[in-house]
Automatic annotation (TrEMBL):
<feature type="binding site">
    <location>
        <position position="93"/>
    </location>
    <ligand>
        <name>substrate</name>
    </ligand>
</feature>
<dbReference type="GO" id="GO:0005524">
    <property type="term" value="F:ATP binding"/>
</dbReference>
<keyword id="KW-0808">Transferase</keyword>
<feature type="binding site">
    <location>
        <position position="273"/>
    </location>
    <ligand>
        <name>ATP</name>
    </ligand>
</feature>
<feature type="binding site">
    <location>
        <position position="194"/>
    </location>
    <ligand>
        <name>substrate</name>
    </ligand>
</feature>
<feature type="binding site">
    <location>
        <position position="269"/>
    </location>
    <ligand>
        <name>ATP</name>
    </ligand>
</feature>
<keyword id="KW-0418">Kinase</keyword>
<comment type="similarity">
    <text>Belongs to the isopentenyl phosphate kinase family.</text>
</comment>
<keyword id="KW-0067">ATP-binding</keyword>
<dbReference type="InterPro" id="IPR001048">
    <property type="entry name" value="Asp/Glu/Uridylate_kinase"/>
</dbReference>
<dbReference type="Pfam" id="PF00696">
    <property type="entry name" value="AA_kinase"/>
</dbReference>
<dbReference type="GO" id="GO:0005829">
    <property type="term" value="C:cytosol"/>
</dbReference>
<feature type="binding site">
    <location>
        <position position="215"/>
    </location>
    <ligand>
        <name>ATP</name>
    </ligand>
</feature>
<dbReference type="GO" id="GO:0016301">
    <property type="term" value="F:kinase activity"/>
</dbReference>
<keyword id="KW-0414">Isoprene biosynthesis</keyword>
<keyword id="KW-0547">Nucleotide-binding</keyword>
<feature type="domain" description="Aspartate/glutamate/uridylate kinase">
    <location>
        <begin position="79"/>
        <end position="290"/>
    </location>
</feature>
């Protein structure tokens, strides 16, 4: 039943496009960040301590002979229930912004081509991420929101398919969704951010916590390129959706932050992340925004509530008023 309290889901993680790709270089994966992140996810969700069993039996350009399926007798490949969502980074945003897919235009040749090119690019990244997770022994399966029937109305989420994600989890597999180009009932098409997909899943499935991985240590009071930017340690969200900074004390009670996004970012960058994180927190789920590939990311995966984080943890906590 959708909307039910289901604490058997440990965590929903967003692999930010800025974290796992080089966002300013067309279709370029940050291999090192992706590999560390997949290893940290395996360490956090694995229910057994033995070495990982690769589930990627595909042929590779570097290793042309596909690996032999291993003898899996007696091996445990079960994991805790995690959901993974990823952003597009340098896969998808370039194509979408060149043709304004986020603003519609599916009836024009450029709009149609942009929609197709965006989906080719972002589903390519999904394939790369699913393979990287599978080679760590995580039973990952790709789920494209467009194909699963997710759509918007005036760019706000209208249709979703949370039940399909539940079914995948019930089969002890790990769903890997992503931001996508989708149909929009008023403007034809748009870009649905992975941040919004994560928010909807968190609202309906109520994981113990949610983690946004990105390429900076957390949310700052202004773009981190400004040398005076201060990292926000904790944001408190009120019942009406308004929020205030509670830590550090020097910024306490301040209610806004300055953000900026790359010119080709079609989904609003850090500003979207903060507002979606606030909605998740309002539904009672703690949100941690943290830098990918760091020990703080691993700690965030493993800590089901903010009380489990150590004093040395670096990142931003977004939580409901207590
Ligand atoms: N106030 C701010 N605090 C933190 N980061 C900020 C702020 N303003 C701008 N940024 C920028 O936001 C970027 C991260 O947001 P972005 O939406 O690109 O992340 P992502 O979710 O990892 O990527 P994607 O949307 O492709 O999935 C950082 O690179 C940072 O420079
Ligand atoms: C550009 C596309 C296809 C998806 C954007 O998702 P996001 O990077 O999570 O905002």
């Amino acid at each position: 039943m959708e909307g039910a309290q289901d604490h058997s889901i440990r965590c929903i993680v967003k692999l930010g496009g800025a974290a796992i790709t080089r966002k300013h270089e067309l279709e370029c994966v940050d291999e090192e960040k992706l590999s560390i992140t997949c290893r940290q996810l395996r360490q956090s969700m694995s229910l057994n301590c033995s070495l990982p069993v690769s589930m990627d039996w595909s042929r590779d350009i570097e290793a042309p002979n596909p690996p032999e399926p291993l003898d899996l007798q007696g091996k445990n490949v079960d994991t805790e229930r995690f959901i993974i969502v990823h952003g597009a980074g340098s896969f998808g945003h370039f194509q979408a912004s060149r043709s304004n897919v986020h603003k519609g235009g599916l009836e024009t040749a450029l709009g149609k081509a942009g929609f197709v090119a965006t989906r080719i690019s972002v589903t390519r990244l999904n394939h790369i991420i699913v393979r990287a997770l599978a080679s760590e022994g995580i039973p990952a399966v790709g789920v494209s929101p467009f194909c699963a029937g997710w759509s918007t109305r005036s760019r706000a989420l209208e249709q979703h398919n949370v039940s399909m994600v539940k079914e995948i989890l019930d089969s002890k597999l790990i769903p890997v969704l992503h931001g996508d180009a989708v149909f929009d009932s008023t403007q034809g098409c748009t870009i649905l951010s992975g941040d919004v997909v994560l928010r909807k899943l968190a609202q309906d499935l109520k994981p113990l916590h949610a983690v946004f991985l990105t390429d900076v240590p957390g949310v700052y009071d202004r773009p981190p390129s400004d040398k005076d930017a201060v990292l926000l340690e904790e944001i408190e969200v009120h019942r009406d959706g308004s929020w205030i900074i509670t830590r550090p004390g020097s910024l306490s009670l301040k209610t806004g932050v300055e953000t900026e996004a790359a010119a080709h970012d079609t989904t609003g960058g850090m500003a979207t992340k903060i507002s979606e994180a606030a909605i998740i927190a309002m539904s009672g789920v703690d949100v941690f925004i943290v830098e990918a590939g760091t020990p703080h990311a691993l700690e965030a995966f493993r800590s089901s509530s903010r009380y489990e984080l150590s004093n040395a943890w670096i990142g931003t906590i977004v939580r409901a008023v207590s």
